[in-house]
Design brief:
Structural class: alpha+beta
Largest sheet: 2 strands, antiparallel
Order of helices and strands: HHEEHHEEH
Radius of gyration: 19 Å
Number of helices: 5
Strand content: 15-25%
Helix content: 40-55%
Shape: globular
Length: 174
């Protein structure tokens, strides 16, 4: 951002480079926001499936803050590169479908928000301007796609399946 501001100061005629740097800054900032929105999607869909959200974790590394909000333990770490939403279901009837809905909530939210912003800003001329819509759409699409890739990641010493692997396991394991 400092580079962008200095470019604007020294080269008042050509703002294209300034706009590019500012758009990249917002792209990085929105990527963190999209991870939080992804996890909020899990929480929303868990609630829709009659589940109880127990814990909402953003990031890795040093813990910055820990608090309770609406009965949910919220933990935010220093490096927001991932997240995890823990939910439980007391009523076991149709549990597989409830877990499928809860698991799908993250990427569905990312794709929905990307599509909504694309529709709202469709046809708007952004050449030569800071394009905040693209800076929001692109990370949402990437977070959604990356969540669908089947892999396991390490979370506090446990191997946790990605959303894509979890969906595959729910659909094809008995």
């Amino acid at each position: 951002l400092l580079i962008a501001v200095s470019l604007k100061f020294f080269d008042r005629e050509n703002s294209y480079l300034f706009n590019t740097f500012v758009t990249l800054f917002f792209l990085l900032a929105f990527s963190k926001l999209c991870i939080a929105l992804h996890e909020l999607g899990h929480a929303l869909f868990a609630t829709m499936a009659c589940g109880r959200v127990r814990r909402f974790v953003l990031g890795e590394g040093t813990e910055i803050v820990r608090f309770r909000w609406l009965g949910v333990l919220v933990i935010i770490h220093s490096k927001i590169t991932s997240g995890h939403t823990y939910a439980s279901f007391e009523n076991k009837l149709h549990l597989k479908w409830k877990q499928l809905l809860y698991t799908s909530g993250g990427f569905v939210t990312n794709f929905f928000l990307a599509g909504l912003v694309a529709l709202l800003f469709e046809g708007k001329e952004t050449a030569g301007y800071i394009d905040l819509s693209i800076a929001f759409i692109v990370p949402n699409i990437f977070v959604g796609i990356f969540a669908l890739l089947p892999y396991k990641h390490n979370r506090m010493g446990y191997q946790i399946p990605s959303d894509g692997l979890r969906i595959f396991m729910l659909l094809f394991n008995k």
